[in-house]
Amino acid sequence: MNQNSLLSRINSPRDLDQLTDAELKRLCAEIRTCIIQTVSKTGGHLASNLGVVELTVALHRAFESPKDKIVWDVGHQCYTHKLLTGRREQFSTLRQENGISGFPRPYESEHDSFMAGHSTNSISAACGIARAELLKGSNRSVIAVIGDGAFTGGMAYEALNNAAGLHNLIVILNYNEMSISKTVGSFARYLANLRSEPTYLKTKSSLENILDHTPVVGKGLKKVLSSSKKGIKNMLYHSNFFTDLGFAYLGPVDGHNLEELSRAMNWAKNADKPALIQVFTTKGKGYSKAEQNPGAYHGVSNFDIEQGNPDFIEEDSFSTAFGKELERIGRMDKKVCAVTAAMKYGTGLQYFSSTCRDRFFDVGIAEEHAVTFCSGLACNGMRPVFAVYSTFLQRGYDQIIHDAAISRNHVVLAVDRAGIVGNDGETHQGIFDAAYLSHIPGITVYSPADYEETRIFLKKALYEIDGVVAVRYPRGSEPKLPEFPEKNTDYQWIGEGDCLIVTYGRISADAIQAAQKLGEVCPTAVLKLNRISPLPEEAVKKASQYQRIFFFEEGIRLGGIGEHFLNALNQYGFQGSYTLTAIDHFIPQASVESSLKQLHLDRDGMIKTIVEQINEV
């Protein structure tokens, strides 16, 4: 970074106070350059961060962080915030192992008020923080920054409904017409319509200016209007959804105009009730490729700035293999429907949506609704497939039980990003789905290890099994597996030996390679589970004859498949030793390869675990 740049002089938010308006605009340009250059090397969320540069600068000018609390919804737009709060020198380590996170993390900085990674929780968290401030006798402001995409999720409305009396709460509604996929739904249209309303802040200033220069009656009329409780606002701006809920509302405000943003935030600080400011921003602003295609530049791997080339959805990936197979099935079967929660491209559903448009449904960031919606489709004769990241499916857990499993509605869950996902860190790892799905009665769970198995088990889930069926698969490309005589089976047995490795999913390839390497030390067989719930009885029965079993699981240990397998073994009178290697903590950001290595879930880690166990005997 140029040592003469304005950004190099910003070590805390209060350094912004020393800059002129012209310098603040230059600073915003420098911040955009820094973000583009960094994300092009580290990957990350680009378009969303480029859209909130001025908004973030204005927030830190108007409020005094960390005394005033800023809560970021999702948190994938916090890069400018990090640059302004003492993490400029570490910014090049963004999303890297042992580097700074791409999301707010309170353990990283006192300026990060609340951990985030999933959408729609900011207003709820801010309500709690604001209430705590009032209970402590403090009047510090608490600001929730939330995008219009998050308003497709019900939690935001639950929070708005409970914000009464929190005069220290400010909600910044950032309207950019884009969450990850295009914002959908009736409320999105409602917010869009507010764009056409006159800007209260500008109109108020213009009217005051006119009255100040009107002889005789001007100042008197202004005084009369100002003395009214609602005054100028009621004359110029009608009631809307937010004011009906008890909020003081201001908008629309230009989210790239620092002067207008500053005045809006000062207005909100002086409101005698919860305040909501609706700002309008351009996602990807300052980088033309991201402005033209914000969806493609939402989350990117490293890329060439001049050429662009975002690694938006890799052609060689489980998501693509799934998406193309579902599209093929959908063209032949008019009962098949595809559902996404604002992740059409991320889950590979762009193929289905283009050819089976009337049976493709994007419900917005509303996983709970998506599960129950699928149950409704299923109970009326359709074959719904809900494609969703593992980490986001957690939000629909109650609906899976209550609305799908109990009634045995035939819903297929295509669980993408199952297992370790890499640099997004703790909030995005898909390590819980195998455990929480497998203990729900009546659910069938498949865990394919390559593309062909993904296609096979998707078709099996649609046409051969009743009730809720989950097909879970990892992020990225397929590992290299040996050719099996038969792939459409609940399990595969590879080799013979005194020891037995049991595993499932992506790391099956590592297990097979480990067994081959262990041949001279200890002949080792591999049981590759394809159906992980319910467990194949014949496989468990055969495994119970072994004296040494090593279960490796790319998922949470407690309540996971490894524990279920041991329980099943014991029912067959298993008397041997059993070693379970699984995950027992939240996994921080790192590459998938590095995380698996640290967890001893790669080939070398498996070999080491087995050799050490054998040598102890």
Strand order of the largest sheet: 9-8-10-11-13-12-17
| Largest pleated sheet | 7 strands, mixed
The overall pLDDT average reads 89
- Proportion of beta-strand residues: 15-25%
Q: What fraction, in percent, of the residue positions are helical?
A: 25-40%
Number of strand segments: 19
Query: How many separate helices?
Result: 25
Pathway: Metabolic intermediate biosynthesis; 1-deoxy-D-xylulose 5-phosphate biosynthesis; 1-deoxy-D-xylulose 5-phosphate from D-glyceraldehyde 3-phosphate and pyruvate: step 1/1
Family: Belongs to the transketolase family. DXPS subfamily.
Enzyme class: transferase
Cofactor: thiamine diphosphate; Mg(2+)
Give the SSE layout.
Layout: H1 21-42, E1 44-45, H2 47-50, H3 53-62, E2 69-72, H4 79-84, H5 122-135, E3 142-147, H6 154-160, E4 169-175, H7 186-194, H8 200-212, H9 218-227, H10 231-236, H11 241-244, E5 248-254, H12 258-269, E6 275-280, H13 288-292, E7 299-300, H14 318-332, E8 336-340, H15 350-355, E9 360-362, H16 367-379, E10 383-389, H17 390-393, H18 397-405, E11 412-416, H19 433-438, E12 444-446, H20 451-463, E13 469-472, E14 491-494, E15 499-504, H21 508-518, E16 524-529, E17 531-533, H22 537-543, E18 548-556, H23 561-571, E19 577-583, H24 592-598, H25 603-616
Parallel strand pairs: 2-3, 3-4, 4-6, 5-6, 8-9, 8-10, 10-11, 11-13, 12-13, 15-16, 15-18, 18-19
Antiparallel strand pairs: 1-7, 12-17, 14-16
Helix pairs in contact: 3-12, 5-6, 8-9, 14-20, 16-18, 21-25
